[in-house]
What we know:
It is built from eight helices and six strands, in the order βαααβαβαβββααα. It is an alpha+beta fold. The protein is elongated and about 65 Å long.
Amino acid sequence: MLQEPFLFFGTIAENIAYGKPAATRAEIVAAARAAHAHEFILRLPHGYDSLVGERGQALSGGERQRISIARALLIDPRILILDEATSSVDTTTEKEIQKALDNLVRGRTTIAIAHRLSTLRDANRLVVLDRGSVVEVGSHDQLMACEGHYYRLYQAQARNVDTEDELRRMELAAKREEERE
C-alpha cells in the first residue's frame, strides 16, 4: 500500500476487487467493512456501483486509503508493505484508517514505513533508520526506555514541532551531555 493509493476509473466495487477480479459482492462488502469503508460507500449516490474518477479524484484521501485497504484485505497477502499509509490524512481520519490497518496486518508479516511514529506503537519490532543507516532496533517500549534517536523523534512529534529541526537540536544536546559525562 502506497502513501497515495492508486485508484482507476471504474466503480468502487471494481477498485476493491482489482487484485481478485472473481470476487463476489459479499467478499467485496466484507473487505470494505473490515477496512471501515462500508459506511461512506453506502452514502455515495450508487453505493458500490458509484464511479470513481481517474485516480479516485471524487473521493477524499482517507476514503481512497480505505478503498486501498479493502483491496489488500480482499487479496489477503502473506506479506504486506505499507509505505506512509496515513501520512496524507488528518488525525481523525488517521484513527479510522489505523483501525482498518489493525484488521489488515493481523496474522501477516508487515513492513511499515512511517514518519508518524504513533502508527507504529504496536509493532513487534521497529528498525530505526537515520540517513540510510540502522541506528536502533527494538519494540516501542524498548526504544523509548533507551531514550535514543527514536525516543527523541517520538517526543518531538508528541510536542507537535518541526521534527527534523527539533530532532537535530535534541541529538546535539544529547551528544554534548554524553561528552560531559
